[in-house]
Design brief:
3 helices
């Protein structure tokens, strides 16, 4: 089913876009070209192809959650521009 100018006008309305006449015609042609390409892809035999969640195989996307020692309070406070006793001193936020 090809895309018509009426379809493009409806899509533009939903997207709150204002399109000129030539833009509607151009978008209609482009959307129909995309649909033709999709029809061409539907001709491929994909019976032995497993569906993918990503285009490439992801390795190391997440790391194990391991408990490691954190900075001591003294080490964290060494580079603080301002501090009071054992806390960072920051400007008031109102």
């Amino acid at each position: 089913m090809p895309v018509t100018i009426t379809d493009v006008e409806r899509i533009a309305s939903l997207a709150r876009l204002i399109l000129a006449g030539e833009e509607k015609e151009k978008l209609t042609r482009e959307l129909n070209e995309i649909l033709k390409y999709m029809e061409k892809l539907n001709e491929l035999d994909t019976t032995n192809v497993e569906p993918l969640t990503h285009v490439t195989e992801i390795r190391g996307g997440t790391r194990p959650d391991e408990v490691t020692p954190s900075l001591s309070r003294e080490d964290a406070m060494k580079n603080a521009p301002e501090k009071t006793e054992k806390f960072f001193k920051v400007p008031k936020v109102l």
